[in-house]
Write a structure and sequence with these properties.
By secondary structure, the chain is α+β, with helices and mostly antiparallel strands. The protein contains 3 helices and 9 strands; from the N terminus they run E-E-H-E-H-E-E-H-E-E-E-E. A hairpin with a 2-residue loop joins strand 8 and strand 9.
């Protein structure tokens, strides 16, 4: 018997897979338990439509992320803060501060968790910061810290 899995089933397959199983396992466990539906032509066509829609959405999100990466890389993000002697900051610049500056200067909202800082910025100057926008898509932005 062929079934389309609606959920991941250990030892059988992943969600969306069309797999061949024993008749008893399919009829007595998978289908009544809501783990699978029988692989009819209509059900297979429906799964293929969902898969195509999901792939189209992923392609659209990747295109948006690439566009955002180009936009962020174009010009530096400038932050002004209080500075003490020797160019040392009072406190430090964190990913949240950078995210707020990006929103204020470009109008685009970037999640602070996507901004990768090896360590907090504690001095005046220009720094390169990585922003992970999507799987395998990242932008290097220039962050300039100036005295207020």
């Amino acid at each position: 018997m062929k079934v389309i899995l609606l959920k991941d089933v250990k030892g059988t397959g992943k969600k969306g897979d069309v797999v061949k199983v024993n008749d008893g396992f399919g009829r007595n466990r998978l289908i009544p338990g809501g783990f699978a539906v029988e692989a009819t032509k209509a059900n297979i066509a429906q799964v293929e439509r969902k898969q195509a829609a999901k792939e189209a959405q992923i392609a659209e999100e990747r295109a948006e992320a690439k566009k955002m990466a180009e936009l962020l890389s174009e010009k530096p993000v400038v932050l002004e803060t209080k500075v003490g002697e020797g160019g040392r900051l009072f406190g430090s610049i964190t990913s949240m501060d950078i995210a707020e500056a990006i929103k204020a200067q470009t109008g685009h909202d970037i999640d602070k968790k996507k901004i990768v800082l090896d360590k907090p910025i504690k001095s005046v100057g220009t720094f390169t910061v990585m922003v992970k926008l999507y799987t395998e898509i990242a932008a290097e932005i220039e962050v300039q810290i100036k005295e207020a």
